[in-house]
Amino acid sequence: MKLLGASFIITCNDDIGILRNGGVLIDNGKILAVGDFNELKQQCRQCDFLFYKNHIILPALINSHIHFEFSKNISSFMYGRFDLWLNSVMQNRGAILKDNLKAIQKAIMEQKKSGVGTVCAISSYDLDLDCLLNSNLRVIFCHEVIGADEKDFENQVINISNRLEHSMALKTNLFQSALALHAPYSVHTKLAQYIIELASKYKLLISTHFLESKHELEWLQSKSGYFKEFYDKYLKLEDVQSFNQDEFIDLFHDVQAIFTHCLYADSSVKEEILKRGSIISCPRSNLLLNGKMGDNNIIATDGKSSNNDVDLLQEMRYVLFATLSAKETEQDESKSSTEARDIESISKHILYAVTCNPAKALGLNNGVLQEGKDADIAIFEIECEHLEQVITSFVLNAKGAISLLVNGVDIISYGNNENNTIH
Ligand code: MCF
Ligand code: FE
């Protein structure tokens, strides 16, 4: 049993809120209690304790959409337009996927450094499986399925069954298998249905990219435009059996699903999606490929295929500035600028978008500091002179976690605890 304390504890649970000089009591990978540090210390005199002065304790962050296999990319892909990006992926992905293990390891380190304790990894070829298994992170490993040619159905089924059988045998309390149906334009109807049945049979989470580009919307609505040429050019396919928008969403009625991007979903489509699952936004990827931000109730980095890094702290900071900039355009001249409490509530929204919200979407028992939750905890140094803006101070300045616990175990070892004594 151990007790961790800090000048600030942000629970990401509105009933408990923010604690000054708070403590989190941990035993056997679980949170036993959250409260005042000194009171908890009195109650549990025999346990190990550590108080981090001028630090903040938070739930470990959750990166709910990342492609580790593309971590080697710097400038192999084109940005600014989704069609140009996808063409460049088709042409250059082979080189990016080759000898990518070092880059994958680096991207995993980047997660830990930014205080991420859980990743939902979208894996096209399972090249990242072993690195993630050995990462000590909590991992949801989504085997991604791509296949537009119905003639290959039998092989496609054998392939995904083998991949899934292999990873399901590796299940631990930190590692779970899941599926990803790449997108409605890249998986034919028969295969899509098969994948959903697999997810339903084995109770697996399923992730998908949906309505990311205007080209996808055009294809789903009228089977025309960029994708028609795409199939011909890259896959030598004249026709592809794919669902329309509503049919695609309906597929997910019986499974736990996460839909990434949804930039071209109008409000009624979003309502339908949210009846069946959650929407994940990758703000910098969305902007780079499609010039749109997306809804930011759940924020993830996407892969280095469509981002300059996979640092979730940078992603959060980006959203803070972009939200303030959008607010500025909304405000007319007569209104005063964003107020102190507005910016703190934007920061809180951003923090929840990488903690409690993705935890719920992914069906995890973490993302909140509360009795009974998994002890996935991140500790950051913080300088905060204005208590009413503690979350803003974190979002704005956090550079790296000094300690990261997953299931109660510290998985980064460069924490420096000197001078961390109370008062
Ligand atoms: O999320 C981004 C943009 N949308 C779609 N796919 C990808 C993203 N980053 C990497 N990808 C991968 C995807 O997993 O690109 C390939 C797939 O392997 C595109 S389909 C040939
Ligand atoms: Fe993606």
Q: What tags apply to this protein structure?
A:
22% strand, Amidohydro-rel, TIM Barrel, globular, 423 residues, binds fe (iii) ion, disordered C terminus, binds ligand MCF, Urease, subunit C, domain 1, hydrolase activity, acting on carbon-nitrogen (but not peptide) bonds
Give the arrangement of secondary structure elements:
Blueprint: E1 2-10, E2 18-27, E3 30-36, H1 37-43, E4 48-59, E5 61-66, H2 82-97, H3 101-113, E6 116-123, H4 129-133, E7 138-145, H5 153-168, E8 175-181, H6 189-202, E9 206-210, H7 214-222, H8 226-235, H9 245-250, E10 257-261, H10 267-276, E11 277-280, H11 283-290, H12 312-330, H13 340-352, H14 356-362, E12 377-381, H15 390-397, E13 403-406, E14 409-410
Parallel strand pairs: 1-4, 5-6, 6-7, 7-8, 8-9, 9-10, 10-11
Antiparallel strand pairs: 1-2, 2-3, 4-12, 12-13, 13-14
Helix pairs in contact: 12-13, 13-15
Bound molecules: ligand MCF and fe (iii) ion.
The site of fe (iii) ion has 6 residues, from loops.
Keywords: Hydrolase
Pfam families: Amidohydro_1 (PF01979)
Domain Amidohydrolase-related: 56-386
